[in-house]
Amino acid sequence: MGHCTYKIQIEGTVQGVGFRPFVYTLAHRFGLHGTVSNGTEGVEIYVNVTPSELETLISTIYTELPPLASIDKLTKTVIDHIEFSDFMIIKTQDQGKRTVRIPPDVSICKACEKELFDPENRRFGYPFITCTHCGVRYSIIKQLPYDRAQTSMADFKMCKSCEEEYSDPLDRRYHAQPIGCNECGPTLSLYEGKEALNVSREK
Fold first, then answer.
1. By the 8 A CB rule, do 162 and 181 touch?
2. What is the DSSP string of the chain?
């Protein structure tokens, strides 16, 4: 049997955990064409594959899941053929019943911890350091789907460096909605009574 277009619907903790760039990376590894996007129920993948390629993709999704991701349900359906020239991450689909699960806030990962204490890193000492493998999720979201515009980070405009990371599917901060740094993110100040002990730029 030749290539068919399949729709793969994945439900569970699959938003805000680096799932789309994970699928993007797998698709490029296997030379597949299609799309992946967030939806109100989870993640949707459209892909042109043979049945054996489909099974390899699905098996690898399960065995190499991002650290914070979990799958409750995965369905695959053959649909009318769609022609794709590459594999792309596309805009979030926000229509339909909202059932996707957002993970809780997660403590700092090893990679962020290393950056936090590295004087040469641009996020040295940044108190709100985060990536798709750690940081705040549940406490900043206002509504689904989980996109930056629908979180309390919406008021913080990303600097050029953060925007480049946020837009790169191969970066671990790709669509990490709380992304920020000392230049553009939230800040923390410490006061004793009315006296500021550590004054920093506040938004």
1. yes
2. ---EEEEEEEEEE-SSSSHHHHHHHHHHHHT-EEEEEEETTEEEEEEEE-HHHHHHHHHHHHHT--TT-EEEEEEEEEES----SSEEE-PPP--S---PPPPPPBPPPHHHHHHHT-TTSTTTT-TT--BTTBB-STTTB-SSS--GGGBGGGGSPPPHHHHHHHH-TTSTTTT-TT---TTTS----EEETTEEEE-----
Both tokens of residue 93? Answer: 């689909």
Structure tokens at 45: 């993948």
Residues ≥6 apart with Cβ < 8 Å to 37: 20, 43, 44, 89, 90, 91, 92, 93
Assigned token pair, 184:
């553009």
CA distance 63 to 77: 21
pTM to 2 decimals?
0.72
Per-residue pLDDT reduced to its tens digit, 114-161: 999 999 999 999 999 999 889 998 889 887 777 788 889 999 999 999
User: What is the separation of C-alpha 155 from the centre of its chain, rounded to a whole number of angstroms?
Assistant: 19
Identify residue 95 by its one-letter amino acid code. Q
Angle, alpha carbons 64-78-9 (nearest 5°): 45
Q: Max Cα separation, the chain?
A: 73
Which structure tokens are listed for 105?
């806030």
